[in-house]
Amino acid sequence: MISIAISTSAGAFTAHYTSRGLARLDFPNERQRSAAVAHDANAQVRAWASLTRDALEAVLGGSDPAKWPPLDVQSGTAFQQKVWEALRNIGRGRSKSYGEIARELGTPNAARAVGSACGANPIPLLIPCHRVLASGGKLGGFSGGLDWKKRLLSRELVAFSG
DNA sequence: ATCGTCATATGAA
DNA sequence: TTCATATGACGAT
């Protein structure tokens, strides 16, 4: 695993790469564990880091990334991976509820479990867990802090209550 | 509008 | 098996 600081207009995220791609993304300030690194990053990882930065800037600006780094999400359970896949199908500017996703997956009573899977999402912003609201358009939660969720939704002109 | 309570799926300890 | 969840539905207040 190679970790690299990704600086954006919203602060310095920390990206963690395996040989297969981006495996985890930490919000700015989450312990500032970034600093070092980068010195052992090969050309491949540096290229992915560049794609990651551009993709993040796009999402922060409310638009779709033109290119994506490869995402390595094999860390999750089968259920979590199905949820994360469903999240990637929510287009920019749209939203779904935890319950809707549960029904899509064929487990209509698993809304709460979907919420847990969202909380376990290793790559926020690029796997758009911020586009999942609770029923009735209520905001729900967000592991990186609700301010992030509000800001991202506002940028995409998604309405929410709360 | 808000609050308590229950039902439920999933995952970690 | 027990505990915690980024839920949801329902009823009482």
Q: Percentage of helical residues?
A: 25-40%
Q: How large a portion of the residues is in β-strands, by DSSP E?
A: 15-25%
Give the strand order, joined by hyphens, for the main sheet. Answer: 1-2-3
**Secondary-structure element string:** EEEHHEHHEH
Enumerate how many helices there are, as a single number.
5
Give the termini distance in whole angstroms: 38 Å
Question: What is the alpha-carbon Rg in Å?
Answer: 16 Å
Mean pLDDT, nearest integer?
94
Uncertain segments are none
Give the overall form: globular
Structural class: alpha+beta
Based on DSSP secondary structure assignment, what is the total number of beta strands?
5
Major sheet description? 3 strands, antiparallel
Structure description:
The protein contains five helices and five strands. By secondary structure, the protein is α+β, with helices and mostly antiparallel strands. The strands form two sheets. A three-stranded antiparallel β-sheet has the order 1-2-3, with helices on one face. It has a two-stranded parallel sheet with strand order 4-5. The longest helix is centred in the first third of the chain and has 18 residues, at 43-60. It starts with a strand and ends in a 7-residue tail after the last helix. The chain binds a DNA duplex (13 and 13 nucleotides) through residues 77, 79-80, 97-99, 102, 107, 109-120, 129, 132, 134-136, 139-143, 146, 149.
